[in-house]
Each structure stands twice: as structure tokens, then as C-alpha cells.
Design goal:
single chain, two-stranded antiparallel sheet, alpha+beta
């Protein structure tokens, strides 16, 4: 796209052009983990010690091969057929899976990643936390990774949210990616993921401690996000309006302050100018689709969209539970009847104010909380049941395993839940 050619309609088309027919839908995930020095329990620096982030990346590269990614002289990622490795601000190592045709392949890719990370950690004396928030380290003792993006973002968010630096350096999550076949399908899935999010927070709450003490939250990570930047986190009210769709989403994203601009010398601060102010510019200040995608990467809502939908509300889980996160969302979002069941179950908190209350309750009390005056434990049984129904009855990407619902059945057993409506 020529410089200066970007306009609102082209931003709408950015999403519309990503539509895929059902038989081409894929599923993907991102898993973040915090590494700690196995000998001391302390966070690992970027470099300067054997137990360091750089050494982890070097060993991972030896174990799996791939193409190293540098920023200046700093190794900051790896790209391979198995996906990509990137660094979050506090040294969290994030694996992004390749897009997978089904949950079976995703499980295989996940297994390969976990085995490689364990081996890389063993070689340099690093252990991986299975919690979504660092439980003991004071914020001031956290390292920062040498990436220009994080210097700018840290200054920007630090001025807007009391817990923004905790979010950047001390949290870890599981995020899942899904396709859509039309603008109506995009909207159905976005809204469904939004209203189910409080239930998912409750199911996967795994971050109750910080600074060596209980926080009063079962998912303190969720609370951290609520005090990061109100302009770009949580979800805006427009998501819950009748008729919500891609155009309404684009209009909201256009009003979100811009953090970065890409210039010849690298990333520079955009000083919080709304992205819509860059439309129509030409020459040096023109915005193209690369600038739009950079802006989208700073939208930290619980559900967001690039050329796919991304669901972001789950805390990091212990390894045996990780696959339950994409399984839950696949069963709901990739089966129309399961999606409708889930939306009906969550109708009691399908307005913005009630949704915020439900998210707060899930963060505080997990399955002991409530949503729309209904117990989250009860809703969790219904959502698990809907997803199990979808997985067992033809949900796209469910896979060919004898019972693709096994990760959810195990989760339900461990949490003492009875799925409702999950029979064949």
C-alpha cells in the first residue's frame, strides 16, 4: 500500500480480507513462561551469567534449530517450523505455535516446545515457573530485556497504570488464536469469547501470590491488567452494543492512543496520538498497514483481533493443563451450537457493567465468585459442557483423537466440576 493511502475503509478491509472458509480454519496458541535461576530462585538476567535469558535462547536454538532473531547485537528470538520464540519485557520466554489444523497437531507442537524448553533450562540451570505471576520477587528486582519496544512501552504504560510494570515483567499467560469466515462470524465469536471470559478466568486462575504473600485474588494477573492502561485493556463498552462488528471495532481502535511509530532509525514514541490522526498523512508521517499492525499489537483487550481473533484471559497453567485452554475455546468458537449454548449461559452478564463485575469476581474468587448473580461454578459446568459437546460433535480443529474432550474432562475432574450438556 502506497504511503498516505491508508483510510478507515482499508482498515475494515484488513479484517475482511482475512476471512477463511470453515474447512481452512486453524488454531494456534502462545505460551509465556518465567525462568528462574535453579540455584538461587532469582529472576535470570538477559546475559552475564550461565543462568540467563540469552543462554536459554542459545540452548533452545541448539535443541530445535531455527533462525536466530537479533535486535542489534542482542539475541531476542528464534523462528522455526515449530513456531517462534520471543521475549517479553521481564525475560518471559514466549512460544508462539505455528497455525495448526487441529488440536492433535497443536498438542504435538506443544509437547515439542515443552521438551525443548526443559532441556534448554537444564543445560543452563534455569527452572520454569508454572504460575502466572511471580510469587516472591519484588518488582524492583526484575530485569528488563534490551528491546527498544519495551523501553518506550514501559515509560508509556508506567505513567498510566499503577501495576503496568508488574504486567510487563511479572506475568505469564496462555493466548489462543482462531479464524472466522465472515464479518458476522467474526462478531459472533468476538462477543462469545468476551462473555465467556469471566468463566475462563475462574477456570484457569493460577496467580494468587505476589511479593511473598497472598494478594486476595485467585488471579492476581487479571487484577494487574485492570490497572495497566484503561485506554487499551479490559474491553470497551462498544463490544456489548447491539450490532457490534468489525466497523465498530475499527472505530474504537482508531481512537486508542498510539504508542509507537516505526522510523528509519527504529521505533520512536508516538506520544499517545490517536491512530485516526495519522490517516491521510503523506510522506514521512504516512501510516501504512505495518503501522496499523504495530498499533494493533498494543491493544491489550481480553479479546482482540489481527487477521485472526485472539483470546487472552487465561493465566499460565502447569504443563499438563495447558492444552485445556485451546481445547475450551475450540469447542465453543468452532461449533455453532456450542457457541450459542455458551452465549445463552452467559447472558446474565452480557452488558459492560455486569461483565466488569463478573471479571472482578472471577479474579478475586475464581469458581467461588459470581457472574450476573449466578455462581461461576455453575456457569463453568455449562461452559465446559458446551465445549465438550462442540469437540465431540464436529467442531472444526477438534482433531481425530478418540475423545478430543479429554483435556477438559481432566480439568473438570481436578476442579470438582460436572460438565452440563457434554454428552454425545
Amino acid at each position: 500500500m502506497a504511503p498516505g493511502a491508508l483510510n478507515r475503509q482499508k482498515l475494515v478491509e484488513y479484517f475482511l480480507e482475512a476471512r477463511r472458509p470453515r474447512d481452512q480454519w486453524l488454531v494456534g496458541m502462545e505460551v509465556e513462561k518465567l525462568g528462574r535461576d535453579a540455584a538461587t530462585g532469582l529472576p535470570i538476567p538477559y546475559e552475564g551469567a550461565e543462568a540467563s535469558v540469552r543462554r536459554v535462547l542459545e540452548h533452545y536454538l541448539e535443541v530445535r534449530s531455527g533462525d536466530p532473531i537479533y535486535e542489534g547485537d542482542h539475541l531476542v528470538g528464534i523462528a522455526g517450523e515449530w513456531g517462534t520464540i520471543s521475549l517479553e519485557p521481564g525475560g518471559q520466554v514466549e512460544w508462539s505455535s505455528p497455525p495448526c489444523r487441529d488440536l492433535d497437531l497443536l498438542a504435538t507442537e506443544l509437547s515439542g516446545h515443552l521438551a525443548a524448553s526443559r532441556e534448554a533450562g537444564r543445560r543452563c540451570g534455569v527452572e520454569w515457573l508454572d504460575l502466572a505471576v511471580d510469587p516472591t520477587t519484588p518488582l524492583g528486582d526484575m530485569p528488563w530485556m534490551p528491546k527498544a519496544r519495551y523501553k518506550i512501552l514501559g515509560e508509556y504504560l508506567g505513567a498510566r497504570g499503577r501495576l503496568a510494570h508488574r504486567m510487563m515483567t511479572q506475568t505469564a499467560s496462555i493466548q489462543c488464536a482462531f479464524d472466522f469466515e465472515s464479518d458476522a462470524d467474526w462478531a459472533r465469536k468476538f462477543v462469545a469469547a468476551a462473555v465467556v471470559s469471566p468463566v475462563a478466568v475462574a477456570l484457569f486462575a493460577n496467580s494468587s501470590r505476589a511479593d511473598g504473600a497472598e494478594t486476595g485474588y485467585r488471579s492476581f494477573r487479571q487484577r494487574i491488567w485492570r490497572e495497566t492502561d484503561p485506554d487499551r485493556c479490559s474491553l470497551p463498552p462498544v463490544v456489548f452494543d447491539p450490532g457490534f462488528g468489525i466497523e465498530a471495532w475499527v472505530d474504537w481502535v482508531l481512537r486508542v492512543p498510539t504508542v509507537f511509530q516505526q522510523r528509519a532509525r527504529g521505533l520512536v514514541s508516538a506520544a499517545g496520538v490517536p491512530f485516526q490522526d495519522f490517516l491521510g498523512h503523506k510522506g514521512f508521517t504516512a501510516a501504512g498497514l505495518d503501522a496499523w499492525e504495530l498499533h494493533l499489537s498494543t491493544i491489550f483487550t481480553e479479546v482482540r483481533s489481527y487477521s485472526y481473533l485472539e483470546v487472552r484471559c487465561a493465566d499460565l497453567q502447569p504443563d499438563p493443563r495447558i492444552l485445556a485452554v485451546p481445547a475450551l475455546w475450540t469447542g465453543i468458537l468452532y461449533h455453532p451450537e456450542a457457541l450459542e449454548q455458551a452465549v445463552r449461559a452467559c447472558s446474565g452478564h452480557a452488558d459492560h457493567a455486569a461483565w466488569l463485575e463478573a471479571m472482578d469476581s472471577a479474579a478475586r474468587d475464581a469458581l467461588g465468585g459470581s457472574a450476573g448473580r449466578r455462581p461461576l461454578r455453575e456457569l463453568a459446568g455449562k461452559i465446559l459442557g458446551a465445549s465438550i459437546y462442540g469437540l465431540r460433535n464436529g467442531a472444526a480443529c477438534a482433531g481425530r483423537a478418540e475423545d478430543p474432550a479429554v483435556p477438559l474432562l481432566r480439568l473438570a475432574h481436578e476442579l470438582g466440576l460436572t460438565p452440563v450438556g457434554g454428552s454425545r
